[in-house]
Amino acid sequence: MCGIVGAVAERNITPILLEGLKRLEYRGYDSAGVALYTNDDKLERMRRPGKVSELELALTEEPLLGRLGIAHTRWATHGAPCERNAHPHFSGDLAVVHNGIIENHEALRDQLKALGYVFTSDTDTEVIAHLLNHKLKDLADLTVALKATVKELHGAYGLAVISADQPDRLVAARSGSPLVIGLGMGENFLASDQLALRQVTDRFMYLEEGDIAEIRRESVQIWDVNGQSVERESVQYRDGAEAADKGEFRHFMLKEIHEQPAVVQRTLEGRLSQNQVLVQAFGPQAAELFAKVRNVQIVACGTSYHAGMVARYWLEELAGIPCQVEVASEFRYRKVVVQPDTLFVTISQSGETADTLAALRNAKELGFLASLAICNVGISSLVRESDLTLLTQAGREIGVASTKAFTTQLVGLLLLTLSLGQVRGTLAEGVEATLVEELRRLPARLGEALAMDSTVEKIAELFAEKNHTLFLGRGAQFPVAMEGALKLKEISYIHAEAYPAGELKHGPLALVDNDMPVVTVAPNNELLEKLKSNLQEVRARGGELIVFADEKAGMTNGEGTHVVHMPHIHDILSPILYTIPLQLLSYYVAVLKGTDVDQPRNLAKSVTVE
Ligand code: F6R
C-alpha cells in the first residue's frame, strides 16, 4: 500500500507534496516523509511517525523548500511504524520512496552489508536505495542505474527516486504497484494515484507493468519492460466531483452511508429499460459472451468478497447459474479446476487490490470464458485489464470502512444476475420486470432505512462496554451478517464474528452469555421461522438480541430482545437494505468508543500489497 508523490518544477513544491500526501492518506497513515533537493543544493528530508498532519506540523516549524522532491505516506509492512522506518530512505546522495514489497530483501541486504553499506532501518525499501547507490558507482547515470537495479528486485514495487548528483530529474519504476505521471506546463509530477495530483493537473500518463520513467521539467521519457523506449497515451481527467468534503457530517463514513440512496440511483442510471436490464451496460460484447456462460467464478477481498457471496445466492436462485466465490488471496495460489464456459468476475472498490489483480492475471492463463470487473474506479488496473466492466457509481469513498461501495456493488451484481438470466432465458416469468421495478424503488427504501439513524444510535449504547459480538443471518443475509461483523471489528475494534444462524448450535452457542450481544437481520422470508428458533436458543442462554426485522415479521421487543423494524422490501433486495442499519450500528459504536472512524488503526483504504 502506501502513497507516493513526486514533483520536478521551477517553484517550491513542498505544499504540492504535502497536499498530495493528504489525498493519499487512504493508502496508509503510519508515518509520512518528504525528501527535497533544497534551494541550497542539498538533499534533505523530514519524516514523522503518524499522520501527514504530524509531518506538516514539523515542516511548519522547520520549513524545507525545493523544486525537486519525493514524498511518501506509509502503511508498515517491514519494520514498525516509526521515524527510522519512514520513507524516503537515503543512500549517499539519493533518496527513494517505495510502495510494495521486495521479497528478496534479506539476500540483498546481506550482499550490500558485505559491500560495506550500513542499514539504518528495518525496511525492505532501504535495500533499493543502497543497491541503486552501488549500481551508480559503475553506471553513473541515475536512469540507467535504476534500470539495472530493478532487474535484481523480486516482488512488487512502485518506486520514485531523486539524487542530489542529478537534480534535473525524478526517476520511477512500476512493477505490481501503480504509478501515474501528472503532466504540467514546465513542470511534471508523479504519484501512486492521480487523485494526489488533481490539484496541479488534469493530464495524466499511466505507467504500465515493467515501465521505467525519467521525468524532467520539460520532458517525460518511458521505457517498457523490454527496455524499449515507448510512448504512453496521455489522458485528460475531467470529473470534478473528487473534492473531499465532509459537509454537514462528522465523519466521511457517516456521509458515505447517507449517500447510498443517491449513488445507488446513479449506479442504476442508463442501465434499465422499462422492464429489463440493458445488457450492453456491461460492454458491447456482453450479450454474445453472456449467452455462453454456464458457470460464474467470483473473486474479491474483504467487503467486496461479501458482495460476491450475496451474488452467489442471486445467480443460483434467479438465473440458475452455478457460482463459486472465493477470496482472492486463496484463489490466486490454489490449483483451480475451471469448468467450461465460466465467467470470471472480480469485484473491487479501488480496482487496485493486489490479490484481486493477481487473481485476474492468473485467471487469464486458466481458460476462463472472459473476465468481468465490477469496480468503482474507471481508470483502475482491474478495469483496464478486464474484458468487460460494470462501473459502480459510488463516487470517491474516503472512509476506510467500505459502505457505499458495497451497496452499489450489490446493485451491479443484481444487474449482472438479471442480464445473465435474460440472455440465457433462465429467469422465471415476470421476475425481471418485478425486480427492475423494485430496483427503481430501492433508493427510496434506503432513504427510509437511513431515517432510522437515531434509533440505531441508541442501540449502539448496548455495545460500548462489550468485547465480543456475534452476527447471525440465514441465506443471502449470512454474507450481510459477515459484512456487519467486519464493519464492527474494523472501526470499533470489538471482536465480531458472523455465523449462518443454523450453525449456532454446532459450536458458537457455547460463547453466548449475557456479555455477548447477538445481532441478527431478519427479513420476512421463508427462513424466518427457522431464524426465530435460533434466536430462542440465544435467549435461553441469556444472550442479548438485537434484531433488525421486517415490520411484517411479527417480532417484538421483550426482555433482552431489541427489535428494530425495517421497511418491507422484496426479499431479493433485502441484503442491500439490511446492510444499512449494520453500517450505522458499527459507526455509532465506534463513535462511542472514540476510535478514529475514518482511519482505523492498522488499516488502509487500498490494499496494494499482498
Ligand atoms: C472493509 C474494506 C476492505 C475492502 C478490501 C477490498 O471495509 O474496505 O475489506 O473491501 O480491502 O478492497 P477493494 O474493494 O478495493 O478491492
UniProtKB/TrEMBL annotation:
Single GO MF descriptor: glutamine-fructose-6-phosphate transaminase (isomerizing) activity
Q: Which gene encodes it?
A: glmS
Q: What does this protein do?
A: Catalyzes the first step in hexosamine metabolism, converting fructose-6P into glucosamine-6P using glutamine as a nitrogen source.
Compartment list: Cytoplasm
Annotated ranges, domain Glutamine amidotransferase type-2: 2-218
Give the catalytic activity: D-fructose 6-phosphate + L-glutamine = D-glucosamine 6-phosphate + L-glutamate
User: So which domain of life are we looking at?
Assistant: Bacteria
Q: Which Gene3D superfamilies match?
A: Glucose-6-phosphate isomerase like protein, domain 1, Glutamine Phosphoribosylpyrophosphate, subunit 1, domain 1
- Give the enzyme class: transferase
Q: Report the protein name in the record.
A: Glutamine--fructose-6-phosphate aminotransferase [isomerizing]
Q: Which organism is it from?
A: Pseudomonas violetae
- The UniProt entry annotates the active site at C2 (nucleophile), K605 (for fru-6p isomerization activity)
Q: Name one Pfam family in it.
A: GATase_6
Q: How does it assemble?
A: Homodimer.
